[in-house]
Specification:
Length: 242
C-alpha cells in the first residue's frame, strides 16, 4: 500500500460500496476498479459510511466469504476522525476484526487455573427455601422477542451491537436465537410506565449487557463499542511492538 488514504464518492448505496463486485470493495481488492494500482499500491481496507448515520463500516478481503469481504460495523465518529487526519492506522483497523476474547488454546485450562487458586476450608450452606417478596418494574417479554425477530428478519443474525459476539456462531444450534435485549434508557430512570419501541432496545451479549449496567453514568452502546475497539487496538499495538 503506497497511498494511505484515497476518498471517493458516488456509490448508489452502502451495499454497493461494500459488496459491489466491480466498483465496490470486492472489486477494489480484486483489481477490477479503474485505479492505478502501481501508483496507489494494494488496498488493505475499505471504509464506508453515509453522512448523518451513527455507524459506518470497515471491510477487508476475505476469500472464505462468498462476497469476497469481511465487514465490521464501527462508529461513524471514528471514521470521520480518520477522514480528518487523512489516514487510518493499519493496526487500529485490524483490531476491529480481532476478537476481544482469547482463543481456547491461549486460555489456561480448568486444571491449570485450579493450581493457582488458594485452598481454604470454607463451606457455604445453599439450596434451602426462603420466602422473599420483591417489588419489580414491569417488563414486557414479548417486546424483547419482537426485537429479536425484527433484527433476525433485517440482518439474518443476532450479533452483539457492542462486541459483535454471535451465540450461534460460537455455540452452534444451542445458541440459535439467543441474545439479551437492553433498554437504551434504563427502566430505573422512569417514574411511571412509558411506551417502549423497538428503537429503544439494543441487542447485547450477556457479558456486554452485564458490564454496561456496571457503568455510572450508564454508557451508551456506542460508548462500550468504542471502548472495546480501543482495547483491541491497544492489545494489537502491544503485540506488534513485541
Amino acid at each position: 500500500m503506497k497511498t494511505r488514504w484515497r476518498k471517493v464518492k458516488g456509490h448508489t448505496s452502502i451495499d454497493n460500496a461494500l459488496y459491489g463486485p466491480r466498483d465496490g470493495a470486492p472489486g477494489l481488492f480484486s483489481n477490477k476498479v479503474r485505479i492505478n494500482y502501481v501508483q496507489h499500491g494494494v488496498p488493505l481496507f475499505v471504509l464506508v459510511w453515509r453522512d448523518g448515520e451513527e455507524y459506518g463500516y470497515v471491510a477487508k478481503p476475505d476469500a472464505s466469504e462468498s462476497t469476497g469481504v469481511t465487514v465490521r460495523e464501527i462508529p461513524v465518529d471514528q471514521l470521520l476522525r480518520y477522514e480528518e487526519s487523512g489516514e487510518a492506522p493499519i493496526t487500529e483497523l485490524q483490531s476491529f476484526f480481532v476478537s476481544a476474547a482469547k482463543s481456547a488454546e491461549e486460555s489456561p485450562s480448568v486444571a491449570e487455573q485450579a493450581k493457582v487458586l488458594p485452598v481454604e476450608e470454607f463451606v457455604a450452606e445453599e439450596g434451602g427455601f426462603v420466602l422473599a417478596v420483591h417489588i419489580e418494574r414491569e417488563r414486557d417479554s414479548a417486546l424483547a422477542a419482537m426485537k429479536k425477530r425484527a433484527v433476525l428478519a433485517a440482518l439474518g443474525y443476532l450479533r452483539c451491537e457492542a462486541c459483535d459476539f454471535d451465540f450461534s456462531e460460537v455455540y452452534g444450534e444451542i445458541g440459535e436465537g439467543f441474545c439479551e435485549v437492553h433498554h437504551i434508557r434504563p427502566l430505573s430512570e422512569r417514574d411511571v410506565a412509558e411506551g417502549t419501541g423497538l428503537e429503544d432496545l439494543a441487542v447485547l451479549c450477556s457479558n456486554c449487557h452485564s458490564i454496561i449496567h456496571r457503568t455510572s453514568p450508564l454508557w451508551t452502546v456506542l460508548d462500550l463499542r468504542a471502548h472495546l475497539a480501543h482495547v483491541r487496538w491497544s492489545r494489537l499495538n502491544d503485540a506488534v511492538a513485541r
